[in-house]
Design a protein that fits this description.
Elements lengths: L2 H7 L10 H33 L7 H17 L1 H15 L1 H19 L5 H4 L2 H29 L7 H28 L3 H4 L10 H18 L5 H8 L7 H6 L2 H36 L4 H15 L1 H13 L1 H25 L1 E2 L13 E2 L1 H19 L2 H8 L5 H18 L1 H12 L7 H17 L6 E2 L2 H4 L9 E2 L3
Antiparallel strand pairs: 1-2, 3-4
Length: about 475
């Protein structure tokens, strides 16, 4: 069933300009670029931190932590971006909002590639860098919700998990693209050329490439129309005139936001960032795996794991969102410690007292790919169905605002802290496995709350909101099982 036939069954004149696969591709392409923009900073943090935070340059771990904290600033402001752009998305539409976020993200990323370092302009360098990370975080706070909702509101009831799961692949694909671009640039020049802090340093190229990628995505997105469901709501006068008040001013909606945050997204966030970002940091900063080799290991695991976002998203249409998400969290809680123990056994680290730049002497790459791939399976289970779940949990008239806030609090603030807290914990304790205790704790709390209180939303008919004139914000009804 197509979006057109679904809309038609409700008497809505909402024929889309493109077929659903084209709509998903257009929305996903821009979101991949936004995630790429957001993550190249984190991927390059170990290299560029000394350029902007020289006081930490004498201590590699301290320099890394300062850089990771700057990286996290982008996560910390994502909820504010969710509120700002969520309100715009509920007031004027999904399409125009994620056009704005794409431009802001691309512009901020390009400028990062142009900033002079601390040696050239002093304290202005880190201040500008933090300001640009804030802009990136604000933009991403509005981007994901807009893209996920846009696809979900085109998708027919009963197939929403499958269609939105393609949006769920974008974060991992964005990370993969960032690793691939950085690796390609590194291999095209000497290490000294890549790590040159001057204006011709190779590390700047991935940032500057964003300008070209954004222009291409902007062209594609400009050709899209507004989502059919939002268009129908607007034509019938059922859109919200005060989305912030309706989203954040009612006890009932706050309960839904809290339930989404603590019963689903917080655990999903730590599982996603542990299996991908912390795994990479663990390899390079803690196990001393050579950077290029670590990039290849993680990239292969990402390629192997990405299809499972779609597999589990589609499966959630048949057996339910909750079962799959909770299973992913449970597996992470039980298996993280043995997985990271096995990762330490797959690498021969430099002897104690070696220079900070010393690298691992023997790396079992196959074992590491498999161990990271298993972590990615947990992430795909927790993350694959969650866009459909959040769309179905909140009413359409305030969906953009309501969905984006818990997502970016859980995924951005709580999940985004994983690399920093985990690395700091290992540095403070000397225990190589201690870094996973934070994600295990958050995932366990989310699992308990989710199992007890989280509703199953799979059979929700979001199109019924258009028909319900009596209570337009609550018109969703369960589909027949």
């Amino acid at each position: 069933m197509s979006a057109e036939s679904t809309a038609g069954s409700y008497g809505l004149p909402t024929k889309p300009a493109f077929k659903l696969p084209q709509i998903i591709t257009a929305a996903s392409a821009g979101t991949v670029i936004d995630w790429y923009d957001f993550y190249i900073f984190g991927t390059l943090t170990p290299i560029i931190s000394p350029f902007f935070f020289p006081n930490a340059a004498g201590d590699p771990i301290l320099s890394l932590l300062v850089g990771l904290l700057t990286f996290w600033v982008g996560f910390a402001v994502r909820p504010f971006g969710a509120i700002v752009f969520g309100r715009i998305g509920d007031l004027i539409g999904r399409k125009y909002t994620f056009l704005i976020t794409l431009l802001i993200m691309g512009g901020a990323t390009t400028v990062i590639g142009l900033i002079p370092t601390y040696a050239s302009i002093g304290m202005a360098a880190p201040l500008i860098l933090v300001a640009l990370r804030i802009l990136q975080g604000l933009a991403l706070g509005g981007e994901y919700g807009g893209a996920a909702i846009y696809v979900a509101e085109h998708a027919p009831d009963g197939h929403r998990g499958y269609h939105t799961s393609w949006i769920q692949t974008t974060a991992t694909l964005g990370l993969f693209v960032s690793l691939a671009v950085i690796l390609a640039v590194r291999l095209s020049m000497t290490p000294e050329q890549f790590a040159d802090p001057g204006p011709t340093g190779g590390w700047r190229i991935p940032f500057l490439l964003s300008f070209v990628l954004v222009l291409g995505s902007l062209y594609i997105r400009l050709r899209l129309r507004e989502s059919p469901l939002y268009t129908a709501l607007k034509e019938s006068g059922k859109t919200s005139t005060q989305p912030l008040k309706e989203s954040l001013g009612t006890k009932r909606n706050w309960k839904l936001i809290a339930l989404a945050l603590f019963g689903a997204v917080a655990g999903q966030g730590v599982v996603w960032y542990t299996g991908q970002f912390y795994a990479l940091t663990f390899l390079t900063a803690i196990l001393k795996v050579p950077t290029n080799e670590a990039y290849v290991i993680v990239s292969i695991a990402l390629l192997l794991g990405t299809p499972f976002f779609v597999i589990f998203g589609s499966l959630s249409d048949r057996i339910g969102r909750k079962k799959i998400m909770m299973a992913g969290l449970a597996l992470a809680v039980v298996l993280y410690v043995p997985i990271y123990w096995l990762m330490t056994k797959s690498v021969t680290m430099p002897p104690a007292g070696s220079p900070p730049t010393a690298t691992a002497t023997d790396v079992n790459a196959v074992a590491l790919v498999l161990l990271i791939f298993v972590q990615l399976l947990f992430a795909t289970m927790a993350y694959g169905p969650i866009a459909a779940f959040l769309v179905e949990l909140f009413p359409a008239r305030i969906r953009y605002t309501s969905l984006s806030l818990p997502y970016h609090l859980g995924n951005g603030v709580i999940g985004g802290l994983v690399p920093f807290i985990a690395t700091a914990t290992v540095a403070a304790t000397g225990n190589l496995i201690a870094g996973v205790f934070y994600p295990i704790l958050i995932a366990a709390i989310t699992l308990v709350i989710g199992l007890k209180f989280l509703p199953e939303t799979t059979h929700t008919r979001i199109w019924d909101e258009v028909q319900d004139a009596e209570n337009p914000g609550d018109g969703r009804t369960p589909m027949p099982a």
